[in-house]
Specification:
CATH topology of the largest domain: Jelly Rolls
Structural class: alpha+beta
Distance between the termini: 135 Å
Largest sheet: 13 strands, mixed
Number of domains: 3
CATH architecture of the largest domain: Sandwich
Oligomer: single chain
Radius of gyration: 40 Å
CATH class of the largest domain: Mainly Beta
Helix content: 25-40%
Strand content: 25-35%
Number of helices: 7
Number of strands: 18
């Protein structure tokens, strides 16, 4: 019977099985035929299993391709930045909400470049001034480069200026780390209400306290000249207008001035300077208002 079980005969070949019954007992042949039927069924199931396993229908192929693309895309997004730039014209103040929910307010004549990936949030203030209300994301630190300095925050509110002659960071809420470019990895940890200035050599000044209300006045369209030299005050006022104020009195350059003016209102600033320093308008063009001593 064991030899009969090993016969490789198709259970559907009736003539072969009938011949065998003439050689052996019917019981033995019946048992062998039943075994052959079971073995044939098992082989059929195995063939169906492997066929299904390796079969790729168009729908399955499309699904597999989509999954592979999704994984590849996720890897690309983690390392390849999406770069966006925003800029303002002279006299314009612009507010933007970034992809992560962070709010940016650009002051007049300012430009910023944003590069986000799945691992980092890198920005560069190319010129002007900007305010940042940063959305918290511990996995992706928020970093702003300005000149030769860098400020890093997680969830914070702060201002950064990148003027030609003045680069600084002012913290309004939260906590930031400001790094200069000087050797030794100079850095400053700011608390709310503190400001640090980046010197031309890349070094940082010691943090100093400022009036937060005064610092943020530009966001409301106001210029707060708080005990500035005349040269510093004119640099701020002239950023907001295509008509520049020029004072032709070198002796007044370091004189201190204070006042709050509407951004872009060069007529009000001119009138105040003329009254305070006994000056007069000697020439006016669309590009400039020139004032000097009377007489």
């Amino acid at each position: 019977m064991n030899r009969g079980r090993k016969l490789a005969i198709d259970p559907q070949h009736d003539s072969v099985w009938e011949a065998l019954e003439g050689l052996r007992s019917s019981a033995v042949v019946s048992e062998a035929r039943a075994f052959a039927s079971e073995e044939a069924l098992r082989q059929q199931r195995r063939r169906r299993f492997w066929s299904n396993l390796f079969a790729f229908s168009p729908a399955r192929l499309a699904t597999a391709t989509a999954c592979a693309a999704a994984f590849a895309g996720a890897g690309w997004w983690l390392t390849t930045p999406t770069i966006v730039e925003y800029a303002t014209r002279i006299g314009e103040i612009r507010s933007e909400t970034l992809a992560d929910g962070t709010k940016v307010i650009l002051d007049t004549d300012s430009r910023i470049r944003i590069a986000y990936t799945g691992k980092a949030r890198d920005l560069e203030l190319l010129q002007g001034q900007a305010h940042f209300d940063v959305t918290h994301d511990a996995a992706r630190p928020f970093q702003v480069t300005f000149g030769r300095g860098t400020v890093t925050a997680i969830g914070t509110s702060f201002d950064v200026t990148a003027f030609a002659n003045s680069k600084m960071v002012t913290l309004l809420g939260g906590r930031v780390v400001v790094e200069g470019a000087a050797g030794g990895g100079a850095r400053a940890y700011l608390s709310p209400g503190q400001r640090v200035t980046l010197r031309p050599d890349g070094r940082l000044t010691p943090p100093s306290m400022v009036d937060s209300e005064s610092v943020s006045s530009w966001q409301r369209g106001r210029i707060d000249l708080a005990d500035l030299t005349l040269d510093e005050a004119l640099a701020q006022v002239n950023r907001y207008s295509t008509t520049k104020i020029v004072v032709r009195e070198p002796s007044l350059a370091q004189s201190r001035v204070s006042g709050i003016f509407r951004a872009g209102d060069v007529d009000a600033v001119t009138a105040a300077l003329c009254a305070y320093f006994d000056l007069k308008v000697v020439r006016r063009t669309p590009e400039a208002i020139i004032i000097a001593k009377s007489g």
